[in-house]
Each structure stands twice: as structure tokens, then as C-alpha cells.
Task: structure prediction
Amino acid sequence: MKFSYVLLGLLATFLPSVAAASFDWLRDDSRQDERVLTYLKQQNRKTEEFQQGYETVTQSLLVQWETMSGEKGDEPWSIKNGQEWNLVRRKGDLVLLSRADKNAPENVVYDFSSRQAKHQYFKIGQWRVQGNSLLFTQDIEGSEQYTAVLADLRYGITRELINNVANEVLLSPNGKFAFVVSKDVKTHRPYQIVRINTQTNVQEVLWQEDKADWLMSFYPAADARFALVQSNNESTNEQRILDLNSGELTASLRKPESGTEYYADIAQGRVFINSNLDGQFDLFETMMPETGTSTDVSDWKLFLKSENGVEQFYLYDAGLVALTKRDNQTTISVYSYDGKAKKSLLLESGGRVAWLSTLGDYHSNKIRIRSMSMTTPPLWEEFDVKALTKTNLSQDVYHGFSSQDYVSQRIMVESHGVEVPVSLAYRKDKLSDNAPVVLYGYGAYGFTMKPYFMPQTVSLLGQGVIYAIAHVRGGGYFGADWHEQGRGVLKANSINDFTAAAQALKHFDGGERDVYAIGSSAGGTLVAGSINQAPGLFAGAVMKVPFVDVVASMSDTTLPLTAQQYGEWGNPTLPAQLKAMQAYDPILNIHKDAYPPMLVQVGLNDQRVPYWEGAKYLAQISSTSESTGPYLLQTDFHSGHRMDPRQAREQQAKEYAFLLSLIKTSKAEH
Result:
């Protein structure tokens, strides 16, 4: 699959924007400037003082969520090498477990608790087990600069192999080599595939990508002996096959051609390739190339063509599984390796969203399916590729909760001649003419925000809130074209759609409602841009690690990862595109008006959206708004783009409590 840093990759240097120029001093690449740190700490104290006013609400939410934690259905373990594996969190500690099957006793493979206890932020990236060796990556500050660690499971001895790598790792079946993606020291661009001898620690660069707007990555093939290594920019890629045992690469499967993408996998001595070579994504096959040689496109034979293209495919011993979409419904289809269709079934049913998860390996012939709606608890199912049967595995049970008490639906909202879908949910007996709306949005990179079932959301519904998700252009709700309509010079469409959704929800079901917005990362662009369009439309907002200084962040052409993102946000070196970017850039469009109360959260070690973006944005809002806010900035000094899971729930409670406090105040005033 395509590798991309979402959001925006790693930014290091910026040109100042006009609107926020007076607050440029808040940018400190070292994260050690005392003046800046003092300011951030002062803002934290201000925020904490305000939060004390609704601390009882925060604690009440935490109690509700804990009480409603319910009985989790047994999560299926991943299947690799004839064993079942699971990385679980028990009492806050990470533990890697294995077992022969679901009826067998668990074996503790590795306990990460002692490593985790040393750090306020701790995240495991990927892990691989071969024999008595465990290879994993860890991030201890939220910067996404991982360290690769090799553990000897016999003696519990660990050693760090290499620093400043991406999260993914590979380990050869014979245990001889570890493979990592090394990052450039200055720009943090993943640019080298490095082979490490696990016995001698000798490192060798197998492939280095020098093009500044290209990123390197890899993923394991269905045939455990191989992996696919790739370099890609936003719309083009190049792949090679890596023999994990010998550590050698083939030549390119296909030389890169602008706009052409292809993604390969290997089984039964054949290479299967999903490519948009002929326009839409079709599935091809060819024979395995010899080491050092490439495949010829003329040797690519069409294996599967679908009306709307092939979204994804998986290889199993019993057959090939393809995902296709029609009328916004995803179909799972199984084919024999001679191309004969064996079985098809809808992935989603009964108004639930569904996706594939914890896939078994090639020999397992098992696919796990996760499905839910905002008001229907999660269900695990298993599809057996060999038997062609689907069975229920487990479902979460929440005592005292009944889906019959809630409504979950999709409405369509008109936005500049386009119908935009909005998913929403509410509790039937709590719906009133003035029930408030909490509207969430993301709208970038072709991602579709699924309407998940979460106790946190249900708790809002229980307090009379209508919870909604706007599937704006720029996301992937209606496929690639929906993404295209909201990216680059058309990014304003995403913001227009969000504003239209908020306006429609304000009068949903004939009511007159306050609307509150939530957006994270690229969703911050959406929310902040919409608030600029109509400050009075929103009664409050929460923005987490928001990308809000777009032109400034995209204006330094020496940064490799900004160049890769021009297609998503626009290229400021081109006058017409710069004009379009300036028209939607959140910071550049702050103006005199009564802006709604806001809570903005940033992570000091964030390398994707540096902390100073949110800090500058809120400072500019505070100095420009004709309202009193409050405008609250909260900096996590021990995390980056994502929080440590150990603190995430409490932080979410603070976000919801902030909005609920505003809702309570609004009701009192009316």
C-alpha cells in the first residue's frame, strides 16, 4: 500500500505567515527555549484552572466510561507461523502473548512493562518473532523516531540495533537479518532500506531513495520468505522484491511512471499486482523475477477486473481474496488461483460499518471482520477462505445498554450543488428541539472516518447530545473521486462541506441547536477553516494537534515531505495554487469577529504538526476575537502527534467535559 505521513509528514522549518507573524517566537525547534516553555506552562496553568470548574464532570465521565466498559468480546488473535499472537495491555502494561490455539494456555513471550515504566510516553511500532528472536521498534517520546530492539527470548537479553528508524521492521525466517527503514537525520524522511546482521550488527544499505519527495517503506509478502520494498511519492511508486533469507533485492517490478501505482504480493511462485496501469485499479499476475531482474509489463496478465476497480487483495493457501466496491458497499470475493470465482459476500450489513482486521497469515486461511455502528456494539466475525463460511466469534456486551433506545442514521446535506453524507446518532428519549450537536470531521488523504461504537460517544448521547460525523470531500467516503474533489486547490470544498453540515444540523429535525466542532490533525484545518467562514455558527470547538498554518508549513521547498504533500494541500510556489491556499489557510483568515470558545491541544514532541502551529493559532485567536472565549491551550510535554494510551482516556474526558460545560452554560443562558 502507499506510504504517506499523515498529516503532512515531518516539518522542521517554516516561513512565517502574515497573520501569525507576531507569534512566530513560539516556534522553537530545540523544544528547550525557556521563554517558550514558560509560556506553554503558563497556558497549561490557565487551562487547568478553567478545567477545575468542571472537574466533577470530567470525573463523572470517567466513571461512566469505566462502568460502561462492559464485557468485551474475546478479540481474535493474529495467526502467524502456526501460532496465535496478541500484544495486549493489562493493567496498563504491554505484554506479548502466544498460544497454540484459542483453547490452549497463554504463554508470555515478552513483558514490556519494565521498559514502559521508564518513560512517560511509550509506544511499540511493529514486532516480529522468528524462533527465539523478537524484533520490535519503540518510541519513547512521541516523536515517531523509533529505535529497533532485538530480544533473545531464551535469556531475556535485549540490545538496541539502530536509532532513528520508521516503525516497521522485518526479520528473516532464518533469523540472520533484521531489516529497517532508516530516516534522514535532519529531515526525518524515511529514505533507506537497511539490512542488519543480527549476529555481528553489521549494517548495509540495500536501497537509498535520494529524491526528496519520495518515501521508503516495506511490508511482508504472503510467502514468508519475501517482502515488498517500495519508494513512493503522492501518486507514483516503485517496488522491488526482497528475499529475506539472502537479504537481496530484485530490480524494480516496474520502473516508475508518473501517476501509475502498483502494489504486489507473492504466493505460489507468482507475483500478483494491483495497479492503475490502465486507469482504474485492476489485478494482474506475473511470474517471479530472478534476483537482479525486473518484470516486463507485457508479461503482466489480467487476473481480475471489477466495475469500480479492485480496492485491496489478500493471498491465502486456499485462494485469492479481493475487495471491490459498488454503490458504496464493499464485497469480499474469493477466487481460485486459476481465476475462478468461488464465493462473494457483502462486507457490511444491517447498517453497520465493517473492515478486515487481525488477518491470519497465508497458511491460516482466516480473515477476521470487525463491524459496528455508533449505536451497535462491536462484533467479531471470521471468514474461512477454505471452507467459504463466515461465523460469529464474539460481540461486546454492555449491560443496561439497548440499541433500541437510540437512532443511528445517515442524512445528506447540500453543499454548493453536491450532496454530502453525514452520519449521526442520538438517544430517542433525549431528542428535543434544542438538543445540541457535536460535529466531528477530518476530510483529508482519502480517509473515511468510520462511525465507531464507543462508550465515550454513548455517554454524550445519554446527556442529550446529537453526535455527527461529516464525510466531507477530501475524505474517501465515495472513493477516489471524493478525495480528489477536496484536495489541493480544491481543499476549500472540504471546509465548505463542513460548514454546510453544521448549518444543516443546526436546524436538524426542525430544531434550533447549538453546534460544537471537534477535529484532529487535518481535521483541525477543517474545523478552524469552517469557524473562519462562520464564527457565529459554532458554540465551541476542540482541536487536537491541528494543522492550521498551511501556507507557512508548505512554503519551504527545502523540506522533502512538504513537496510530497503538495497534491493534498497545494503548492505555494505556483501563484494560482498559492492564492487558493491563502483563501482557506486557517491562520491567514482569522479576522475580527466573536470567535467561539476553544480548547486546543498540542504535543511538544510532535513532528507531524509541530506544537507551535496550535500555539500560534490560539494566540492569534485570543488577540483578535471580539469575544472572551475562553481560549484554552493545553500542551502535553511528553507526547507527540498521539498521546500515550495510558493518558488518552483522561484527556478525552477533559475534551468532552469542556464541551458539556459550554452546553450547560448555554442552556442556563436560554
Remarks:
- Residues 7-20 have pLDDT under 50 and may be disordered.
- The two ends are 52 Å apart (CA to CA).
- The longest strand covers residues 157-171.
